[in-house]
Write a structure and sequence with these properties.
Shape: globular
Number of domains: 1
CATH class: Alpha Beta
Strand content: 15-25%
Structural class: alpha/beta
Helix content: 25-40%
CATH architecture: 3-Layer(aba) Sandwich
Strand order of the largest sheet: 3-2-4-5-1-6-7-8-9
Length: 250
């Protein structure tokens, strides 16, 4: 509880981790607020069904609060956004001159604050993918402020967890995105860094994952624990193995 997990991908797609955490927390009985900025609800629902979870059912029973970023953006841009219960759209910053994400934070806090009838185990904020907020016009400072306030509200006050996906590329000229990524790395309790293979495409090894446990955050003078595995994504699961020990090689 109270942990901030950063999912980072470079030269590959790390969205399989988002699907894992989404199904994992729903199966565990947690209340989940999913800020989905990258894909539609039907996309996440189809993948979740393969993993044995129905997002539609989770929404109906109040366990999942889903923000469909693609639809909200279009509604805002074309003026079709209807204010729900007098509240502004969570992505209101797109149509305002001030780039602050207060409306999005209010949406998260309201979604995860327990009510008297809630019996969920703990609140979870899941964001896919944070880099999209920069593309929509938010400043790096606004994005980092948003994450800071979410950490205070979700991790510290509600004793819940936050899982955030960001795309990064060390060779990229997108300085704003790299600033956000490096800042988040310093604050994360756990970093799952998915990278494409330096040698290029391989049928039996889809990439490698670096698991960094931030022990240094606990001020124990210990170095961070780093483990590196390679992986292969299958239809309903992912196989992990030590580097060079793929079944195809052995």
């Amino acid at each position: 509880q109270g942990k901030f997990t950063l999912l980072r991908d470079t030269r590959t797609d790390g969205s399989f981790l988002v699907h894992h955490f989404l199904s994992f927390y729903l199966k565990a009985g947690c209340k989940v607020c999913f800020v989905a900025l990258l894909q539609s609800f039907s996309h996440y629902n189809i993948v979740a069904q393969k993993l044995g979870v129905s997002l539609t059912a989770a929404k109906e029973r109040g366990q999942l609060v889903f923000l469909e970023g693609l639809k909200s953006c279009l509604d805002l841009l074309f003026g079709e956004e209807e204010e729900q219960s007098g509240q502004p759209s969570p992505l209101q910053f797109m149509s305002e001159s001030a780039s602050n994400l207060k409306a999005l934070f209010d949406f998260v806090r309201t979604s995860l604050t327990p009510t008297g009838s809630d019996s969920w185990k703990g609140p979870v904020l899941l964001v896919d993918d944070l880099s999209v907020l920069l593309s929509l016009g938010a400043t790096p400072v606004a994005v980092l402020d948003f994450i800071h306030y979410c950490r205070v509200a979700v991790c510290s006050q509600l004793k819940g967890n936050i899982v955030v996906l960001v795309h990064s590329n060390e060779d990229s000229e997108d300085e704003e995105n790299e600033l956000v990524v490096s800042s988040l790395c310093h604050h994360s309790d756990l970093i799952l860094w998915v990278e494409g293979l330096a040698t290029g495409f391989c049928k039996d090894v889809h990439g490698q994952i670096k698991i960094i446990r931030r022990v240094s955050l606990e001020l124990t003078a210990e170095q961070d624990h780093v483990q590196i595995y390679q992986y292969k994504i299958q239809d309903k699961n992912v196989t992990f193995f030590a580097r060079g020990l793929s079944a195809a090689v052995l």
